[in-house]
User: Which sequence fits this backbone?
């Protein structure tokens, strides 16, 4: 298992929790806006959730971009374990 940050940098990287990537693609679907950071099939995905009245929630996950709507998201400030 590897621990990664919200941009996909591994815990052993000098960029872990230090480097931010610019958005490559922004996709809006209903109450969600997805931010993709490269031309990849699998990688970090940020989601902005505007479904709650007056509250915006920013979360992220790591997975296939095509599965973005069905993936499980975590708060933006948490790290994630991947295989």
Assistant:
């Amino acid at each position: 298992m590897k621990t990664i940050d919200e941009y996909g940098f591994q815990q052993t990287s000098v960029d872990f929790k230090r480097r931010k990537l610019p958005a490559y693609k922004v996709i809006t679907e209903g109450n969600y806006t997805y931010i993709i950071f490269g031309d990849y099939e699998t990688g970090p995905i940020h989601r902005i959730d505007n479904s709650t009245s007056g509250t915006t929630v920013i979360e992220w996950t790591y997975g296939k971009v095509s599965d973005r709507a069905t993936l499980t998201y975590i708060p933006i400030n948490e790290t994630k374990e991947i295989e």
The mean pLDDT is 96. The longest strand covers residues 42-52.
